[in-house]
């Protein structure tokens, strides 16, 4: 069973296709510096910072967490949108509950194997649609698209979703990630065309 969340745009008062976007049937690859390599036996996913219990999970350990499948739209800041992507993984709220987020946590930094980082306020992550994804269309997520594990953020431009995500840091103060330091919008709402800062 999968859950269709492609109607979430209604919350933002816009059309399904955000302004200035074109729909594409392809799934282009966009990476700042190519696809990093990793070894399934050594791969670990870390949760640290303002949490009750820091976590360190193997690939199998991550796959043992409660999972779900969602149909989501994907909006790239460079102007393409892909509708109806089938993603399977663990929702942000499920992971946050496993770690126990402390009351003083306000912000989140996602860290990735290629050195990429991206940030969001905790309240923008505390949504079922924000997922750590390991399967795409029922198959393991291709390496170019962030396999073994990536984040998806259908309510934000896709640079808020770290491919090859290796960990999540809970912060007590806001910080900026890789593109947020280099001129992309910190807030990244596609229905307001928040592309640059
Ligand atoms: N680790 C990592 N994650 C990343 C990026 C990156 O360079 N490194 N690029 C971001 C950008 S700008 C976009 S548009 C999407 C692209 O995802 P895709 O290649 O699966 O289409 O990944 C985002 N996540
Ligand atoms: Mo992007």
Automatic annotation (TrEMBL):
Lineage: Archaea, Methanobacteriati, Methanobacteriota, Stenosarchaea group, Halobacteria
Positions of the UniProt region annotated as Disordered: 1-23
InterPro entries reported in the protein's UniProt record: OxRdtase_Mopterin-bd_dom (IPR000572), OxRdtase_Mopterin-bd_sf (IPR036374)
Residues covered by the Oxidoreductase molybdopterin-binding domain: 34-179
Pfam families with a match to the protein in the record: Oxidored_molyb
Residues that span the membrane, as ranges: none
Protein name: Sulfite oxidase-like oxidoreductase
